[in-house]
UniProtKB/TrEMBL annotation:
Reactions that this protein is recorded to catalyse: Release of an N-terminal pyroglutamyl group from a polypeptide, the second amino acid generally not being Pro
Active site annotation, chain numbering: 149
Protein name: Pyroglutamyl-peptidase I
Annotated source species: Myripristis murdjan
Family: Belongs to the peptidase C15 family.
Organism superkingdom: Eukaryota
GO molecular function, one term: pyroglutamyl-peptidase activity
GO annotation (BP), single: proteolysis
Main location: cytoplasm
Length: 223
C-alpha cells in the first residue's frame, strides 16, 4: 500500500427539474468504475440539489477526508461540450432548489468574496485534454450558472482554499454516452492532479531556494 496515496473526492448531483436522470452522477459512477490508478484514493458521492444540504455536506467532506482535490460535476442542459468552470460566485441565488427553498440573502457566504478562482488553470487543463485525442470536446467557462452547481463550487473553493474544480457535462446522449463522459472525467482529473503536483514541486523549489539564500547570508555574517 502506498503511504502517500492522493485522496480525491468527485461528486455528482441527484436528479432535478427535467433532468430525471442526472448525467453528472451517471458520469461520476462511470469514473468510479474506471478509477484513477493505484496512486489515487477516489471517493465519490451524490449531492442533493438543495442549498442547505450542500451547506452541511461540504464542510464534512473536506474535514473528514482531507482531500488534495475536490471535483464537483453537474449537468447543464445548455452544454454541448464538457465544460471546466474557472470560478464560483457568491451572489445571485434566486432559483428554488428541490425543496422549493432559496437562501434569503441570495448568497453563499455572508461577507465572502464575490468570486473565488480555482488554483487550477482550467485553460491549461482544457488544452492538455483536447490535445490528447480523447474524442470528447472540452471547453472553459467563467459562469457556473448561479444555481446549485455554482453554489456548491463556491462553497468548496472557500473551504478548500481554491483546491476545487467544477465540470459541467451535457445530458446523456447529447452528444456523449455515459462511458465517454466517464473517460473524459478520468482524463481531466488526472490532468488536474498532474498540474497540482507541478505547482507543489515549484512551491517547494522556491521555498528551498529561499531557505538556501538565508543560510548563505547568515554564513557570511559569521565570518
Amino acid at each position: 500500500i502506498m503511504a502517500n496515496k492522493k485522496k480525491v473526492i468527485v461528486t455528482g448531483f441527484e436528479p432535478f427539474g427535467e433532468h430525471t436522470v442526472n448525467s453528472s452522477w451517471v458520469a461520476v459512477q462511470e469514473l468510479d468504475r474506471l478509477g484513477l490508478g493505484e496512486a489515487v484514493d477516489l471517493y465519490v458521492c451524490e449531492v442533493p440539489v438543495e442549498y442547505q444540504a450542500v451547506q452541511s455536506l461540504l464542510p464534512s467532506l473536506w474535514k473528514q477526508h482531507q482531500p488534495q482535490l475536490v471535483v464537483h460535476v453537474g449537468v447543464s442542459g445548455l452544454a454541448t461540450t464538457v465544460t471546466l468552470e474557472q470560478c464560483g460566485h457568491n451572489e445571485g441565488y434566486r432559483r428554488l432548489d428541490n425543496c422549493s427553498y432559496c437562501p434569503a440573502s441570495q448568497c453563499c457566504m455572508e461577507n465572502g468574496p464575490d468570486c473565488i478562482n480555482s488554483v487550477l488553470d482550467m485553460d491549461a487543463v482544457c488544452r492538455k485534454v483536447n490535445d490528447s485525442g480523447l474524442g470528447v470536446v472540452v471547453s472553459v467557462s467563467k459562469d457556473a450558472g448561479r444555481y446549485l452547481c455554482d453554489y456548491t463550487y463556491y462553497t468548496s473553493l472557500y473551504l478548500g482554499q481554491g483546491r476545487s474544480a467544477f465540470i459541467h457535462v451535457p445530458p446523456l446522449g447529447k452528444p456523449y454516452s455515459s462511458w465517454e463522459l466517464g473517460k473524459a472525467l478520468q482524463a481531466i482529473v488526472r490532468e488536474m492532479l498532474e498540474l497540482l503536483e507541478l505547482d507543489r514541486a515549484e512551491e517547494e523549489h522556491k521555498y528551498h531556494d529561499h531557505c538556501h539564500h538565508q543560510h548563505q547570508h547568515q554564513h557570511q555574517h559569521a565570518h
